[in-house]
Amino acid sequence: MSEVSTRDRLLTAALRLFSMHSFAGTSLQMIADNLGVTKAAIYHHFRTRDEILTAVVQPGLQELREVIARAEAQRSPHARIDTLLTGFVDITVRHRALIGIMGTDPGVAHALSTHPDIVELFGRPLEILSSHEPSPAGEINASLVLSGIACTASSPLLTHIDDETLREHLLSSSRRLLGLRNRHHPAPAGR
Amino acid sequence: MSEVSTRDRLLTAALRLFSMHSFAGTSLQMIADNLGVTKAAIYHHFRTRDEILTAVVQPGLQELREVIARAEAQRSPHARIDTLLTGFVDITVRHRALIGIMGTDPGVAHALSTHPDIVELFGRPLEILSSHEPSPAGEINASLVLSGIACTASSPLLTHIDDETLREHLLSSSRRLLGLRNRHHPAPAGR
């Protein structure tokens, strides 16, 4: 129990320090100092800073894998897209700080780019969203939605907007852009 | 004439090297080597790497200032938004490589953040686009469109799409998202 919670505290502190000082600007010593432990205590859990980063991003990646699997299990293109979109918005809002460093810190981007499974995973949402319309228009729409969601959720200009409001409007805007019907605008009776 | 073209060649080479090696990873010596000139020739034009970066971004910033001024001179909210949106899409497509480094290189972001006039300028498009709907929904829509346009135009996944196709679809998608009528979908007669 105490081992688990030390590891969790370490990952929380690492994400906060990466956000403040960038991945390249955060040393294992800084993480140890922030937690009030020795560097040896850090090494008990992780051998390198890259291992810490991989552990920091793991919960978000696991949620993304699950959303992709759920989306791909849907039979209709519409359900596939809507499942992916809803899950993608949920994940980005739940992990605003993490998405922020993944999108803007080249040290993070470089470290993650050395993991082929992660690179492959990051390309899947664009493939799924643009699959029903394999044209430049479909790809541009899909990219606009996905990168817009990620950048908006992590924007320093929008930190005053709470998670639930952000989630709701990101989803309805994205649905509108992709031509999907919003659930709170029911279809007229008879259709 | 030769002075002007040396300066232009220098800025083009600098942008290419910044894109490849990041701003922090590009030295004045690398720029000189790339151009086949001496470091002294670089110093004839610029004293620091920060001065080179400021000169590299200047044409795009000047175009953005002009678009903002044109938008703000419009009387109706609709014309203001459409002028801003059209100009913003034009600029991001024309400067795909530059937008790429501005959005993803923290060295660039940090260097530009020391110029208050540039920081103020970057906040204006979001203010203009969200001004007609001063609510979380309006801000989220505006951010989704602006960051989506910037990320999509500079996305390494979409380099196979030519500028004109990109421009056309970014504009029609953004207009749809903001509830603006697209020019190539004329309103029914009588409306």
Automatic annotation (TrEMBL), chains A, B:
Q: Which residues form the HTH tetR-type domain?
A: 4-64
The family database entries (InterPro entries) matched by this protein are listed as:
Homeodomain-like_sf, HTH-type_TetR-like_transc_reg, HTH_TetR
| Coiled-coil stretches | none
Under Gene Ontology molecular function, one entry of this record is: transcription cis-regulatory region binding
Q: Which domain of life is it from?
A: Bacteria
Spell out the Pfam families in the cross-references.
Answer: TetR_N (PF00440)
Q: What is this protein called?
A: TetR family transcriptional regulator
Q: Which residues bind DNA?
A: 27-46
Q: Which organism is it from?
A: Rhizocola hellebori
